[in-house]
Amino acid sequence: MTQNTGFIGGGNMASALVNGMLNNGIDPASIYVADPDKTKQTALLALNSAINTCNDGAELLDDIDVLILAVKPQIMQAVVEPLAHKINADTLIVSVAAGVSVDKLVNWLGKEMSIIRCMPNTPALVGCGASGLFANQLVSTEQKKIVETLFNTVGITAWLESEAAIDQVIAVSGSGPAYFFYLMELMQQTGTELGLPAELAQALTIQTALGAAQLASQSDDNPATLRDKVTSKGGTTAAAIELMQELGMDETIKAAMQAAVTRAAELADEI
Ligand SMILES: NC(=O)c1ccc[n+]([C@@H]2O[C@H](COP(=O)([O-])OP(=O)(O)OC[C@H]3O[C@@H](n4cnc5c(N)ncnc54)[C@H](OP(=O)(O)O)[C@@H]3O)[C@@H](O)[C@H]2O)c1
Fold first, then answer.
1. How far apart are CA 190 and CA 201, in angstroms?
2. Ligand 1 site, residue 228, Cβ cutoff 6 A
């Protein structure tokens, strides 16, 4: 039987998922997207004109098996509550919003339902995402498989034992792309200051990040061993790494990631 997947919100994350689904042979006629922004609808229809789009979630709720809530956390309550009475009790709810707990969703939906929280990241836009998933107790093994398959179309997925682990995933992979962008930004800038043309510094930095990530993902060695292998005693890499360590790189990364966890909890309280 064809699975109907609905999206409330057709922005970055929804379009990444729709794109991944289409690339993996999912029938476009089984994809429904509600977004009041016509430009988002047009962009989705440009991916495949057989996708169903509409302005309002209320228009798409009848036949939906998996409903993905892909609006900003701050407006989630205002979006979900008016739709709640129209959502079938056997629909699987998937929220990608940071800080919106299962309890809050149950409260806004007005009934106990199968709910999955997912924390994807921006590389999902290029099919290289990393998503942490948490399912409440009502979610069946079959439903877990459906959602896992869906998010695997835009990268890798991992199931979490506890909902609290979502905040840890935010600190690692949710916010993680920005840590790497920051490092790349600094490397590019310093490469230019050292005398390389700006474009060359940028190209070398990006290719080095890409190469390091691919090497780490394809190698049997862990990142620490890979680093060791390129750090000859007394060499240039050793000089750079030793200085990073002396200046407190380890402590900085630890404190920064802890700050992300703390902020995730604070944001949840603010919603
Ligand atoms: N992008 C990421 O990498 C990423 C990573 C992890 C988690 N997330 C989560 O994913 C969710 C979506 O993020 P995003 O980056 O895709 O945001 P986005 O690009 O802003 O998409 C959200 C879309 O929802 C639309 N919308 C607003 N009100 C609506 C309503 N009542 N019904 C239907 N659609 C409505 C918005 O339209 P307007 O623009 O007109 O308001 C917008 O097009 C957020 O909760 C975010 O925290 C995103």
1. 8
2. no
Average pLDDT along the chain: 96
Mean pLDDT to the nearest integer, 174-178: 97
Assess whether the C-beta atom of 70 lies below 6 angstroms from ligand 1: yes
- Measured by CA distance, the residue closest to atom 20 of ligand 1 is 11
Q: From the CA of 11, how far away is ligand 1's center (Å)?
A: 5
- Please tell me if the CB atom of residue 120 comes closer than 6 angstroms to any atom of ligand 1: yes
Question: Residue 1: pLDDT above 70?
Answer: no
Q: Which domains does the chain have, with CATH numbers?
A: 5-164 (3.40.50.720), 176-270 (1.10.3730.10)
Question: Mutation test of ligand 1: which of 7, 44, 59, 72 has the most ligand atoms closer than 8 Å to its C-beta?
Answer: 72
CA-to-CA separations, 221 to 89, 142, 180, in angstroms, rounded: 47, 34, 20
Give me the helix-helix angle, 102-109 and 73-83, nearest 10°: 30
Q: Look at residue 174 in the predicted model and tell me its pLDDT.
A: 96
Three-state DSSP at 136 gives coil
Closest Cα to residue 151, out of 96, 92, 210? 96
Find out whether the beta carbon of 12 lies less than 6 Å from any atom of ligand 1: yes
CA of 9 to the centre of ligand 1 (A): 5
> If you average pLDDT over residues 143-168, what whole number do you get?
96
3 state DSSP class of 228: helix
Confidence of residue 91 (pLDDT cuts 50, 70, 90): very high
- Decide: 121 and 174 in contact? Cβ < 8 Å: yes
Q: What mean pLDDT comes out for the span 64-83? A: 96
